[in-house]
Specification:
The structure holds two protein chains of two kinds. Chain A is α/β, with parallel strands linked by helices. Chain A contains ten helices and 14 strands. In chain A, the strands form three sheets. A six-stranded mixed β-sheet of chain A has the order 6-7-8-3-9-10, with helices on both faces. In chain A, strands 2-1-4-5 form a four-stranded antiparallel β-sheet, with helices on one face. A four-stranded antiparallel β-sheet of chain A has the order 12-13-11-14, with helices on one face. Chain B contains eleven helices and no strands. Chain B is globular. By secondary structure, chain B is mainly α. Chain B is 72% helix and 0% strand. Chain B has one domain (2-258). The chains are: A alpha/beta, B mainly alpha. Chain A binds chain B through residues 45, 48-52, 64-65, 67, 69-71, 74, 76, 78, 80, 82-88, 91, 94-96, 98-101, 139, and chain B through 3-4, 6-7, 9-11, 14-17, 79, 83-95, 258-261. The structure holds adenosine-5'-triphosphate and magnesium ion. Adenosine-5'-triphosphate is lined by residues 11, 14, 16, 34, 36-42, 79, 184, 294 of chain A. Chain A: It comes from Glycomyces albidus. Chain A: Residues 2-226 form the ABC transporter domain.
Amino acid sequence: MITAKGLYKRYRKTVAVDHLSFDVRPGVVTGFLGPNGSGKSTTMRLMLGLDHGEGETLFDGKRFGTIRRPMNEVGALLEAKPFHPTRSARNHLRMLAAGNRIPDSRVDEVMEFVGLGDVKRKKPKGYSLGMAQRLGLAQALLGDPQTLLLDEPTNGLDPHGIHWMRDVLKTLASEGRTIFVSSHLLSEMQLMADELVVIGRGTMIFNGDVDTFVREFTQSQVVVRGPDTGSLAETLKAEGADVATEADALVVSGLEIGKVGHLAFTAGVELHELSTRRASLEEAFMSATGASEQFVAKEPVRAADTAAPEGKAL
Amino acid sequence: MLDALRFEWTRISTLRSTYWLTGMGLLVTTGVAVLLGVAARNEPLDAEILTMALNGGASFGLPFLAVFMAIIGIFACGHEYRHGTIQPTLTSLPQRSRLILAKLIVVVAATLVVTFASMAINTLVVYIVWGEAPGLFEDPIATALIGYALYTLIYVLVGFGLGLLFRGVPSALVVIFLMPLIIESIIFGLAFVPALDWLVPVVKFLPFTAGARLMELNPAPFPPGSPDFDLFSRWTSGGIFALFAALILTAAWILFKKRDA
Ligand SMILES: Nc1ncnc2c1ncn2[C@@H]1O[C@H](COP(=O)(O)OP(=O)(O)OP(=O)(O)O)[C@@H](O)[C@H]1O
Ligand SMILES: [Mg+2]
C-alpha cells in the first residue's frame, strides 16, 4: 500500500508536481498516466526522496528514507537507466544488493528471470534499450519487494517484450503486491492496469478504475448523413447538442442516437446514415489531459482525422 | 552502516580504474626509489635521499601517490554523478550521510593501506640497493614519513570533497591539478616581486604549499634574498591543509543533503 499526500515540487519557475494525493492499493496494477512533461518521473523521484519537495509518501506506513534495507520492501525502476561503463551488469546488481544484504545468488536468479542470464557478465553499455529496461526490472526485483515503482518500464520494448512485461506485472500484482507503473500511453495502460492515476501539468485529473475513466472521458458521438441536413443541424443545436460538420456528415455530441433519429423523423428529414461512433482511448486521454498538455506541437501532424478503432495503438 | 560499507566496498572493487590507479601510483613511487638507487648507489645514504626514496619523490614536490589516490577519491562520488548511478545508489541506501560516511571510510582505508604498502616496497628497494636504511624509525625521518602519509590522506580527502561538491569528475580534476601546480605556484612566484610583496604573508596560508611542509625533513632553506615567508611549523601548516579539506568536505556534505539527486 502506498499513500501519497500533498506531493509538490517546483523547479525555479515550473511547478512540476502540484499537490498530488493518491493511494495505491495492493493486489492490482495501478497505472500512472500523463502526457510528456506532466510530472510522472518527478512524482516518482519525490516518492523515493531522491528529489526534495513537499508532501509525504508512505510505503506500508513508512517513509522510504526510514526503511532499513529498502530494496527488500520497495523496488524502483526509474526513468534513467544509469550504469558505470566498465562494470558488468552482474556486478552492478551485486553492488546494489550488497547495500541491502541480498545474496549474490539472488542476483543470478533475477538476471535469469528477466532473460539476461547469458549476458550478465557483459557491460550494460552494450545492451540494447530493451535489455537495459530488463536489467532495470531485475534491479527493482532484487529484494523481492512488496511494492514496485516503475517509470515507463515498457519504453523501448518490442511488442513481445511489452507482452512479457505486462504478464510479469499482472502476476506480481496477483501475488498481492503493490504495483505503480507510469506510462504516457492509455492503450497500454488499459491492457495492463486495473486502477489509474491520471495527471496533467502536475495536477490530478482522474483517480479511479480504468473502465470508469474510459467511460467518463470517451464521449460517444452520433454521425448523421443525408442529402439535406442543414435544417436538422439547427434543430439539434436547439436541443442543446454540439454539432460539427465533417465532409457531408453532421457529427453530433451530447444527444443520444434515438433522440437524434426521433428529431429527424419529426422534422421529416431524409437520412442516409445514422450511427454512433466512440472516440478512441487515445482521444479520450487527449480530451482529458489535452488542456493540460505542456508541449503541444505547433503544427500537429494529423495522422487520422476520424476516430481510430479502439485499442489500435501498441 | 555495515551495509553501506559493504556497498561501497563492492562499488570500488568492481571498478577497473581502482586497480590501475593504485597500480600506477605504486609503480611510479617504486620507480622513483629504483631510479634514486641506480643514480646514488655508490654514495652513502643520507637522510635526504632516504626520505625521498621512501615517499617516492613526494618531498621533492611530486606527490605521485597522493595524486593517483586523489583521483580515486574524486571518483568515489564524482562517478556516481558522471554516470548517473547516484539514483539507484540512493534507492539502495537512502540515508545520505551514512552513504557519504561509508564512502569516506573506504577511501581513507584504501589510501592508508596503499600508502604504507608503497613505503614498505620502497624500503625493500632501499635495502636491496644500500643494504641499510639508517635512522628510519627515528626523528627526523620517521616524523617526515608520518607527515607524508597524512599529506597523502588530506590530499585524497580534498579530492573526495571536490568530487562531491562539483558532482562530477572533470571539474574536480581540473581544480585539484590547477590549484597546487598553477595557482599556488604563481602566487608563490609573484610574492618574490617587490611590488607584490603584500602576497608574502598569504603564502603560508596556501593549502597545498602548507600541506607539503608536513613531509619536509628539515625546514627548507630559501635562497638568499627571498622574502621572509614566516612559514608555520610542520603541524600548524598541516592543520591549515586539513582545515581546507574539512571546509570543502563540509560544504559538499551539506549541499549533498539538500540537493536533488
Ligand atoms: N531537474 C529538473 N530541472 C528543471 N525542470 C525539471 C527537472 N526535471 C523535470 N523538470 C520539469 O518538470 C516537469 C515534469 O517533468 P517530468 O520529467 O516529471 O515529466 P514526465 O511526466 O515524467 O514526462 P515524460 O513522459 O516525458 O517522461 C517538466 O516540465 C520538466 O521540464
Ligand atoms: Mg518521465
